[in-house]
Design a protein that fits this description.
Elements: H1 2-13, H2 15-38, E1 41-49, E2 55-60, H3 66-76, E3 83-91, H4 95-124, H5 128-143, H6 149-158, H7 161-195, H8 197-240, H9 247-269
Antiparallel strand pairs: 1-2, 1-3
Length: about 270
């Protein structure tokens, strides 16, 4: 019950501060959502085109304001010399951008605020109080019964808020960066392949030719190995059937005949 009592006392003592923080977070989330809604939906842009078909000026909306018309005529001349084209498009709701901003901005702001407070305490008040506080917290956690809500609060209190925030920020940024990176790499790769298609086609043909050549060489090697094994098996079968004399006995007979011829020549010389 110690952790629950401490939590209740903390909420009761800092009730006004917590309400201000919650209201601030709600306003931030509301502003982020409003910006995301403003960036989506039906969008119209008025474009001014010259005789060559080049866009020389464009502005948001379906009509030129007095200021836009005055600025355009002062820069490019009378508006009647150019063509006007209305470009309309339906932009979907930017879910990933809204999700990343809705989580990343509050978490990043709280982490920055906590880091500033921790740095201030470490610089001006030393780290002794922090060490004592953690020791007392560990002691109270060890004295707890370790069941139910107390065990959950005890485990949460032992976690480092900066590590949790870092993991949350990493996950959010990865959710925003990795899809964009994959799309960018895909578009860049396709453009490079289209631009240098002959180079990639030549490289593909070379790799294909080398692969086919290696396969052909392996085929010849396997064929030669099979033929050699067949010859060995054939010779072994003929040897077992007695059609081919034993090589060792033939060599011994040959050596004996040579030895006899040499001994006869020596006798004749004597």
């Amino acid at each position: 019950m110690g952790h629950e009592a401490n939590l209740r006392s903390f909420i009761s003592e800092h009730k006004t501060l917590l309400i201000i923080i919650l209201v601030g977070l709600f306003l931030i989330e509301l502003e982020i959502f409003a910006l995301a809604v403003m960036k989506s939906g039906y969008k119209a842009r008025l474009q001014v085109i010259d005789d060559s078909g080049n866009i020389i000026y464009e502005t948001d909306g379906q009509n030129l304001s007095q200021f836009d018309k005055y600025y355009f005529e002062k820069t490019f001349g009378p508006l009647e010399k150019y063509k006007l084209r209305l470009d309309t498009r339906q932009i979907p709701f930017p879910f990933r951008a809204w999700f990343v901003a809705a989580i990343g901005i509050p978490v990043g702001a709280m982490l920055l605020f906590g880091f500033i407070i921790k740095a201030y305490i470490a610089i001006f008040h030393g780290e002794l109080k922090g060490v004592k506080g953690t020791a007392e917290q560990d002691g109270s956690g060890s004295n707890a019964s370790g069941r139910g809500l107390e065990a959950v609060l005890n485990r949460i209190s032992r976690l480092n808020i900066f590590i949790i925030g870092f993991l949350v920020m990493t996950g959010v940024l990865s959710y925003w960066i990795i899809p964009n990176l994959i799309v960018y790499i895909g578009k860049t790769g396709i453009e490079v392949i289209i631009r240098y298609k002959w180079v990639f086609l030549s490289a593909t043909l070379v790799v294909l030719f080398v692969g086919l050549w290696i396969i052909y060489l392996r085929y010849l090697l396997a064929k030669k190995s099979i033929e050699t094994r067949a010859e060995v098996e054939k010779y072994r079968l003929r040897l077992s059937m007695g059609k081919i004399p034993d090589v060792n006995s033939a060599l011994e007979d040959k050596s004996q005949s040579i030895h006899q011829q040499l001994s006869m020549k020596k006798r004749d010389e004597k």
